[in-house]
Amino acid sequence: MEKSKNGYECWLSYGSYAVHSGNREFQKFGGCISMPRESPILTAAAEEWSRAMREIFSIQTEITHSLPEKPCILLETNTGVPGDQFTIRVEKRQPFPYIRITGNHDTSTLYGVFELLRSIGLGKSPAEAETSQNCRNELRMLDHWDNMDGSIERGYAGRSIFFHNNQVSKDFRRIKDYARLIASVGINAITLNNVNVFSEGNRLITERYLPDLSKITDIFSQYGIRTFLSVNFASPLELGGLSTADPLNQSVQNWWKQTVQTIYQFIPNFGGFLVKADSESRPGPYTYGRSHAQGANMLADALKPFGGLVIWRCFVYNCHLDWRDRSLDRAKMAYENFKPLDGKFNSNVILQIKNGPMDFQIREPVSPLFGALRSTNQIMECQITQEYTGQQKDLCYLVPIWKEALDFDTRADGGCVPVSHILDGTQFHTCHGGLAGVANVGDSPFWTGNPLAQANLYGFGRLCWQPGLSSEEIAKEWTALTFGSENPAAEKITGMLMKSRTIYENYTCPLGIGWFVNPEHHYGPSVDGYEYSRWGTYHYADCKGIGVDRTVATGTGFTAQYPPQAAEIFENLKTCPENLLLFFHHVPYSYRLKNGETLLQHIYNTHFYGYDGVVKLKEIWLTLKGKIDGEIYEEVFRRLDLQLEDAREWRDVVNTYFYRKTGIADQLGRKIYP
Is 153 part of the annotated catalytic residue set? Predict the structure, then answer.
């Protein structure tokens, strides 16, 4: 595998960091790092610093175990304080100042080193790099949907880096590079395998694979990352030879306890289980007439003596809906399944809730479960891999979607209660919480297929660590670190990222309706592809209007799942945010939006605008030839060509669909195919 200059190294491409008057002063500190106490994580921190100094300033770093009589970097750990905290301070000791990085545990000190290196990459001086940071999100997790045969469900960047031909990978160099990458943005947990656990994947929790898995988990542990595994709820039947997986059956409970004990013998800091149950034909406690709380708590009891967690997905819905029955609403089902169980889960169970009530669409409201669960640990699940957002062929910067969800005011107590304060435990004083993202990496030379999709991986980690950062701040960081803070291309690429979500939304699905995709593989336009399916993904377009009536007054009643202040806004056609209009209301094509356009004209306009937006993205990219790494340039150029072709297809298919439905022409006379 060939490495491009900064395609493989991503934002840790230290050789691309510009050296100038702002950060040049770091040279006098960089030649020595003091590590009074040794540990695998602090050793990794010292190695990272040494590597960076060699690549940025061409200097060799001495590692000492006492504070030397010369400028240096001092790594300290002050234990006993919960959470993840570090400080970076310039100590003006005469005549030899030094930079003190103090974490409340070794992993936090490692984060401090990465933060200092980020400051260098952004052109800051030592004084400007001083900071004190405290991350309240306990879990900052990546979920890999990797299969044992090496394939990746919803993977758009090649094959798995963990599994190959039903074997655990031995490419430890690449896995270590991945651990470095994700630790640098504060990721502290990872699930290695697909939530849909099939065939050989069932056996990952057995002694057949645990010895090899332990070698991977040791690498992640060196960077403060705990490893989790997805498990099949029916494992006692499939692996244990039992006749049932009933969570209240003593034999089942004993089987799981023995299995957990075996796992911890090989992986002492094992994080726990991620579980998809009673969803999309996966087995679960409903098979035995038990609740999700009973199912999750059974696993939690087995893990509790070892400090393990159960992460239980709330993606549970009836996937055999009847399109003829408009009272049924898939959006309501997570709430209906889990709201009655609030407070019934063990303290080491965490519910994993998708950011929206449907399935990672380009525009959805925030799930009403956030704010409804007051006595239950919860984390928000985001999709970094671009399943419904262009599959890493199309440029689509996703951080704005997650930022909107984190900032959404649930009005849970009649006041300002953003989702971020629920996840970090501030609002309801829960003991575990945070965010999980479905990872977008594979064995691509660029990790993410499209090199610009690295911005989503970087952005997810940064938003987990500092939810207060803006989408633009994160985009500017990523481009500066990847392409160089002095590179004029960075500003143009930041602009491309910031426009890309709106461009993609414009040429695909209007006003929150979603689902205009080809079934199964979810790429490309098919307006009616899911309209008569069992999946509950309907838009109800007819010759007069489009949209799903989810109001209490005349529709499915979904709006009532939100606290009254939020429900009132969504219920009313006039106060409902227009970018979610068709998610909550069935609207006539003649309805006039706030800008004076009819709904139909808005659909036409946005699809033309979306295509034109991709034309402009490509024009901008053409100006960057010779200003960035050649392999990155060519790969992105190739994908922008694909995106332009696909945007044209989307524009013409969607506009023709609605022209044929209505017989109403575009007011601006643009070409719509009859």
Answer: no
Tokens of 78: 């002050």
- Whether the Cβ atoms of residue 193 and residue 231 lie closer than 8 Å to each other: no
What is the spatial order of strands in the sheet that 72-77 belongs to?
62-64, 32-34, 72-77, 98-103, 84-91, 131-135
Helices (H), 231-325: 235-238, 250-266, 292-303
With bands split at pLDDT 50, 70 and 90, how would you rate the model's confidence at 4? low
- The model's pLDDT over 188-241, given as tens digits with 9 standing for 90+, comes to 999 999 999 999 999 999 999 999 999 999 999 999 999 999 999 999 999 999
Does residue 414 have a pLDDT over 90?
no
Place 327 in a pLDDT band, splitting at 50, 70 and 90: very high
Task: Calculate the CA dihedral of residues 416, 421, 427, 432 and round it to 10 degrees.
Answer: 160
Q: What is the pLDDT, as a whole number, of residue 21?
A: 87
Decide if 486 contacts 630 (C-beta within 8 A). Answer: no
For residues 391 and 394, give the distance between their C-alpha atoms in angstroms, rounded to a whole number: 7
Could you check whether the bond before residue 95 is cis, i.e. omega within 30 degrees of 0? yes
- Tell whether the model's pLDDT for residue 1 goes beyond 50: no
pLDDT at 420 over 70: yes
> Is pLDDT of 2 > 70?
no
CA angle 353, 281, 441 (to 5 degrees): 55
Domains and CATH numbers, the chain: 10-134 (3.30.379.10), 139-469 (3.20.20.80), 485-548+586-674 (3.90.1330.10)
Number of residues written out for the chain: 674
Burial class (CB in 10 A: 0-12, 13-18, 19+), 241: exposed
Question: Per-residue b/e over 429-454, b at no fewer than 16 CB within 10 Å?
Answer: ebebbbbbbbbbbbbbbbbbbbbbbb
Residue among 84, 387, 477, 646 flagged as catalytic: 387
Q: Is the Cα torsion angle 331, 336, 338, 339 positive or negative in sign?
A: positive
Give the model confidence (pLDDT) of 235-254 as tens digits. 999 999 999 999 999 999 99
Contact status, residue 103 vs residue 86, Cβ threshold 8 Å: yes
> From its phi and psi, is residue 147 left (phi > 0), alpha (psi between -120 and 50) or beta?
beta
Residue 161 CA to its chain's centroid (Å): 18
Residue 322 a catalytic site member:
no
| CA atoms of 233 and 252, how far apart (whole Å) | 11
C-alpha to C-alpha distances, 522 to 75, 356, 509, 514, nearest whole angstrom:
48, 18, 13, 11
Over 80: is that where the pLDDT of 333 sits?
yes
- Cβ proximity of 385 and 436 under 8 Å: no
Which of the following is catalytic: 280, 528, 568, 641?
Answer: 280
Say if residue 103 is exposed, middle or buried (CB neighbours under 10 Å; 0-12, 13-18, 19+). buried
Catalytic status, residue 359: yes
Which residues on adjacent β-strands are paired with residue 75?
101
Measured CA to CA, the distance from residue 182 to residue 460 in angstroms comes to 10
pLDDT (0 to 100) of residue 477: 98
Q: Are 463 and 21 in contact (CB under 8 A)?
A: no
pLDDT by residue (tens digit) across 145-173?
999 999 999 999 999 999 999 999 999 99
The tokens describing 360, both together, are: 């990672």
Tokens describing residue 56:
């940025």
Structure tokens at 546: 């489009």
pLDDT reported for residue 511: 98
Residue 634, both tokens: 């060519």
Select which of 9, 359, 549, 571 is catalytic: 359
pLDDT at 5: 61
Name the one residue in this structure whose structure tokens are 């990746």: 152
Answer whether residue 503 shows pLDDT above 50: yes
Residue 580 tokens, joined: 């979610």
Nearby residues of 21 by Cβ (< 8 Å), 6 or more positions away: none
Q: What local confidence, expressed as pLDDT, does residue 3 receive?
A: 44
